[in-house]
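Bench notes, afternoon.
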Amino acid sequence: QVQLVESGGGLVQAGGSLRLSCAASGSIIGINAMGWYRQAPGKQRELVAGITSGGSTNYADSVKDRFTISRDNAKNTVYLQMNSLKPEDTAVYYCYAYRKILASMTQYWGQGTQVTVSS
């Protein structure tokens, strides 16, 4: 099994920055993608950013000029650097990981971390 522990959320003023961390442990072999979804009150969960085992990244259009996802393979940790934060970034951010062993794919979720951006 894979366990994902998130940290780094908090309260920040508009224009500020936060860095989220997601540390994976357990059965690490086979993880081929990690990243974050977020869910704001009254809105659907949306993909924020992801990174593959090969280093390819993708971002939601609303964040791609402001957020950067990266990884530290030695620590099995993924980071989301969030700059120029806006009130509309306020949400619970959920780390995810996909683990593929042969034809079997499993998705894992972190516990979520609250990001609140004040105006």
